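This section describes the prediction task in plain terms. A model, or a person checking by hand, is given the sequence of a single protein chain and must write out its three-dimensional structure as a string of tokens. No templates, partner chains or ligands are provided. The sample shown here is typical of the held-out split.
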Amino acid sequence: MMEEYRLSKNNDGDNFIIRNISISLEDKKRGNKFNTEFEIDVVSHNYCGKSLFIVDFNDIYIFAECLYKLNKTLSGTALIKDLSLGSQVIFSINRLGRISIEGDLYSEHKEQLLKFNFDIDQTYINDIANNLYRDLTEWHNKIHKC
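The expected answer:
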């Protein structure tokens, strides 16, 4: 299990957190694409939501890599999509040069949905982009050594 990854301080109160990343190496080795799970918590304009994401490890690794590149180049997008309920999150650069974070978070059994969109200063993704990419790259290297 890995640490919590969150946006740096955001004065608007909006926030995005990835936590409790758990990777099943056995499932990954067997080719089961439902091998990684984690939670995403979002606070957007005084509304909040949480969703469990179940993905293939490659999906979250590509998301982390794209987020890292978006942070370095201020271009592109980073998308992560849950395989079970269809929750998704997209980071992109908006026309004002700020980071736009938008998505859909479904509760368990799709009983509730939080559709969200907020913009933040580019500096707020520095920690999450660098730390998530660093840690998942370490796991990526371990997985491909096996």
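For orientation: The helical segments are 25-30, 57-73, 126-145.
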